[in-house]
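Researcher: Here's the sequence for the chain we discussed earlier.
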Amino acid sequence: MDLFCLQETALREIREETGLNVNIISGFRIVDEHPIPNKPDVMKRVIYFSAEFVNQIIKYQKEELLGAYLMTYNEAMNAFQFDSSKRILEKADIFIKHFIN
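Model: Thanks. This is the structure I predict for it:
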């Protein structure tokens, strides 16, 4: 799948699951793969982008998510249980700080 299709998929999923209309910030993309528990031959592939939104309220899809929250960087780092999630957030933070400056 090409980058445009991946971004369009991400935008659609974010909109469906959080109610947010976001803009993807070009230049950040990380792919993470890990096995799915109890499915030894299945790998889950997640593609992360950096995005922004303004003046919107999260209205998460209760059928898909247990919740959706805005957090500070430190709150998110403390909430993540997997080291891979923390590494991805750290890379996103570096990217965003560079993008803003």
